[in-house]
Amino acid sequence: MKIKTTENYKIELLFSAVSFFSLLALFLIFLTLAKESFHSIKEIGLIKMITSSEWYPTDEENPAFGMLPLITASLYVTFLSLLISIPIGTLSAVYISEFAKPKAKLFLKSFIEIISAVPSVVFGFWGIVFLVPIIQKLFDLPTGYCILTSSIVLGIMAVPIITSLCEDALNMVPSSLREASYALGAEKHTTIIRIIIPAASSGIFTAIILGAGRIIGETMVVLMLSGGSAVIPESLTDPARPITSAIASEMGETVVGSLHYSSLFTLGLILFVITVILSVLAQYISSKYSLKLGKGR
Amino acid sequence: MKKVLFNHAIKSIFFLNILLVILIVGFIFIKGYKIISLKFLFTMPYNSMTEGGIFPALVGTFLLTSLSIIFALPPGVITAIYLNEYVKNKHLINIIKISINTLAGVPSVVFGLFGFSVFVKFFGFGVSLLSGAFTLSIVILPIFISATIEALSAVPYSLREASMALGATKLYTIRHTVLPAAFSSIMTAIILSTGRAAGETAPILFTAAVFFQKNLPDSLFSPVMALPYHIYALMTEGTHPEKQVAIAYGSALVLIITVLFLISLAVFLREKRRRYVNFKH
Amino acid sequence: MLTLNIKEELNKTEEKTKIKVKDLNFYYGPKQTLKNISMDIYEKKVTAIIGPSGCGKSTFIRLFNRMDEFVLESKSEGEIIIDGKNILEKDTDLIDLRRRVGMVFQKPNPFPKTIMENIAYGLKVNGWKDNFQIETRVIDSLKKSALWEEVKYRLKENAYGLSGGQQQRLCIARCIAVRPEIILFDEPCASLDPISTAKIEELIMDLKKDYTIVIVTHNMQQAARISDYTAFFLMGEMIEYGLTKNIFENPKDKRTEDYITGRFG
Amino acid sequence: MYRYFEDEIKEVKEALLNMSLYVEDMIYNSVLALKTTDTDLSKKIIEEDDEIDKIEIQIDEKCTEIIMRHHPLARDLRFVLATLKINNDLERIADLAVDIAWRVIEISRGENGKIAQEIEGMGIKVKDMLRNSIKSLTEENYELAKEVITSDKEIDALKNGIIEEILRNTDKVNLRKNLSLILAVRHLERIADHCVNISEDVIYILKARVVKHHKENL
To answer: What does the pLDDT read at residue A296?
Structure first.
């Protein structure tokens, strides 16, 4: 009996070791990115890289590694696509959670989940063959590959993600609140605006943060649709090169160990830090939120 | 008046949302369905990618996803078991759960960088099936763990109690009661993760995928073609865009059908079981 | 002289102590859920524990087979002596203890397996290999739990196909298959209809011949019907303990009287 | 659970039956003692009463326990309630038999002749009434219970006849003795009344009808 117990203990120990793999992976990713980007950070300096606006990494005589254009492009694209996906996403969630009939609700939730799995490369492909020509004609541009195109496609892509996260948040609002509001004679739209959305607000906020994290890290769509010019964009119809796009497109061309190679890892590190912060922030808010609604028992 | 407007606004926005998706998928379907044939699926590309099929890309995606599932399965299941069955310390659970969720939020291109630096360079696997599969397995790990935790926690606590009260050890209880009861939901988790792995492009961009390959991959260390990368490459690196776009339509449709089929299957199975479980307990 | 058949078993006082509880305290986090409980539980008798929800009665019997192990941040003091051994000590072999002290839960909890496999589970846990022996024991347990007639042609069917009451009797069969010495019932009829409840109660009365039974129930009538001894718990304290007849006809403590007459609270 | 409840009800029924047999014997012995002025037999009857008292308490306790444990309802409830009353009636009957035994001791010696024979006859009739009332309970026989109730009139008539006769034969010498005889007859008549009570309770159990003071309900 005693032997069995120690055996079980050993297994538990093994299990716990394996369980830390996720944490370890996270740590390893950080370590790898840090190690590879060390070269460029030491050579150029992180602040200088982030603040200068010249990105000519392949210039043979005078390569420049100013990441400002890339970062601004990423922020532009993220902001614009959030502008599209937040209203559509949240309102769709309100529809599913408050208006749809129970049976339809189940179906719609599954449907949203399924379409959120459509691979991003497909969205990028659709953007090229469908949206790019339209944008080009509409605005009379030399090329349809621009911030606007990639933002629209990214926005559409993020809608199901935000919808399903918001729907979860709305679902967590206890039905007693709804009933209480209806019992006081409130109408549906009053109940939704005054009671349900405020009660779910931090959940919706979490959904938006997570959505932002996804958009900023999304690669294929911006890679295929942004146009790729590494200058600070001045208008919506300018082509641009967001961080992910830069990494994906330039990685294949660099010499391993070069300053360019290292600076791409620095970009990865920046992206990693941003998304980790967003993700932890979202989890922090949602854990506080579930405590508030008494779900965290 | 305000009320009517509000309700209509919400409804129309929702249906706009649905319509958009149908537009995208429908557009690709209409353009692509003529291209798909058995020949398209099962022949090699030739004539510098302007003719022929996508067979090597299909094989590559199949190999990549199945390998990555095989790699992700043991740590995924063990982590889920440990979190759901063993740990009592709330802080520990929180730390691991936060790291899983954070890992799920890391951009796929960062996984690509990591895979390149560690598997391709550090371990020296090169751009290969193995590197890609390892990278993909880390990408799907958080999804798989979350789904497996859900599967395990759906097994009623009373079953564990019953088993323990009969004098079974924890391990025996997990092996003979919890895992069998959760088996089908774990299968669902696997299908779900497969669907995700099949559609990922960025992680294999620098770790496994190549645009063109004469032969099918013959070892774990050979680079592979993959369906999502194939679409991307056809659109951006091709030399005969007007001819390649047709193949890209076909490939995109195959990819959509594959992924949506897997995910729908997983979601369908899960919902069906959820209803059954609710009914039963 | 004529003799009367009325049994006087309730007036007998010579009982053998099976479980001896001494100064038991139990803490859940900072909250003390059991306070200074001492009682003797007698062999081959039914002992009922009654009290309002949250009085600690479930916590109490779950200590007898150490199911408290799964409760986070809990602490126990005092002694629970079963057959001369304090089972609260650290070196207790919990696996062996749980084999000797069986438990039936509030909700029927059969495994999602066949009826046969459900009952065989406990035997396999204990290392039984011979299929014939297992089968014999399964049938025997089913007969003892008054389920045999209802399931004898469907042993290979899934246990979830049984009704709630049948499931609970299956759980009892599963419990007695490993031949425990003590059976703990944690509100075994809470989720059952009156007919199934009556069957379970009858079964408990039958089992009394061979097993020491401790039953937690918030149904006082049930305690009155089936138990020989009754303990009344309130806010983690044992208020009164004695022959069921005395507790229900002539309780000594005002709180007990208030509770069983429904004047509580 | 019903099985155990049934067993307990059966136990009580059997106890009642045994008690009634016991009491029947007491009635018979008391009239026998009266006939033969057997003081020894009378003393034995008086002693036996203690036994009956004990049994009464036991049955009472058993009934309380059944109420406590099983919360009987409907027919079972009527049974337990009626049992408590029947139990009481039986005890009273035993007491009356003891009273008769006391009369025998009062009379002590002397010949009672024809009167004693008639009282014995009445005693046997009363004893049969008791037997029938208990039989109607154990056999759940409504007709038999009805018969017991109607036969009460017969006993009343018998009582009146015997008392008339005693009074006719009374003189100064046997006044005291005949008074005891009259009392004994009165006791027997009271026993018959208790038997009627028992039968009424049996009807209450069987038909849930109160026939006490409402003979029209019969």
So the answer is: 33
Q: Is A1 on the interface with C (CB under 8 A)?
A: yes
The enclosing H or E element of C216 equals: strand C212-216
Q: Which domain holds residue A119?
A: 70-296
Does residue A125 lie within any of the structural domains? yes
CATH number, domain containing residue B215: 1.10.3720.10
A183 touches chain C (CB under 8 A): no
**Co-location of B135 and B272 in the same domain:** yes
- Please tell me whether residues B10 and B60 are part of one structural domain: no
Task: Kindly report the CATH number assigned to the domain that includes residue D98.
Answer: 1.20.58.220
Query: Do the beta carbons of residue B130 and residue B137 sit within 8 Å?
Result: no
Q: Are residues B118 and B5 in the same domain?
A: no
Same-domain pairing of B151 and B225? yes
CB count within 10 Å of CB C183 equals 24
B162-176 tens-digit pLDDT: 898 888 888 889 999
Number of domains in chain B: 2
**What's the per-residue H, E or C state across B218-257?**
CCCCCCECCHHHHHHHHHHCCCCHHHHHHHHHHHHHHHHH
Number of domains in chain A: 1
Kindly state whether residues B87 and B132 are assigned to the same domain: yes
For residues B78 and B174, state if they share a domain: yes
Q: What is the maximum alpha-carbon separation in chain D?
A: 67
Strands C229-234 and A64-65, sheet pairing: unpaired
Q: How many domains does chain D have?
A: 1
Residues B29 and B65 in one domain: no
D8 touches chain C (CB under 8 A): no
d(CA B223, CA B125): 10
Q: Are residues B162 and B235 in the same domain?
A: yes
Separation CA D170–CA C130 (nearest Å): 95
Residues 142-181 of chain B whose Cβ lies under 8 A from any Cβ of chain A: 142, 145, 169-171
Interface confidence, given as ipTM, is 0.72
What SS3 string covers D31-74? Answer: HHHHHHCCHHHHHHHHHHHHHHHHHHHHHHHHHHHHHHHHCCCH
- Chains D and A lie in contact, requiring 3 or more CB pairs less than 8 Å apart: no
C95 touches A at CB < 8 Å: yes
Whole-number Å distance between alpha carbons of C265 and C54 = 14
Q: What are residue C216's DSSP bridge partners?
A: C49, C186
C109 to B161: CB separation less than 8 angstroms, yes or no:
yes
CATH number, domain with residue A172: 1.10.3720.10
Q: Which residues of chain B are modeled with pLDDT < 50?
A: 278-281
Q: How far apart are CA B12 and CA B26, in angstroms?
A: 20
Which of C58, C96, C111 has the most B C-beta neighbours within 10 Å, making it the best mutation to test the interface with B?
A: C111
Nearest Cβ partner for C105 among B162, B177, B180? B162
Note the pLDDT tens digit of each residue in C149-191.
Answer: 889 898 888 888 899 889 999 999 999 998 899 999 998 988 8
Torsion C178-C181-C184-C185 (CA) sign: positive
Decide if A48 is inside a domain: no
C-alpha distances in angstroms, A166 versus A89, B190, C110? 8, 25, 37
Q: List chain C residues with CB under 8 Å of D55.
A: 4
Query: Which of D60, D68, D70 to mutate to probe the C interface, most C CBs <10 Å?
Result: D68
Residues A36 and A269: their CA atoms lie apart, in Å, by 9
Mean pLDDT of D135-155: 90
C-alpha D192/C-alpha B229 separation (Å) is: 109
Interface contact D3-C226, CB threshold 8 A: no
pLDDT of A115 above 80: yes
Chain D segment 15-34 residues within 8 A of C by beta carbon are 15, 18-19, 21-22
> Is A137 domain-assigned?
yes
List, as ranges, residues 3-62 from A with C-beta within 8 Å of C: 4
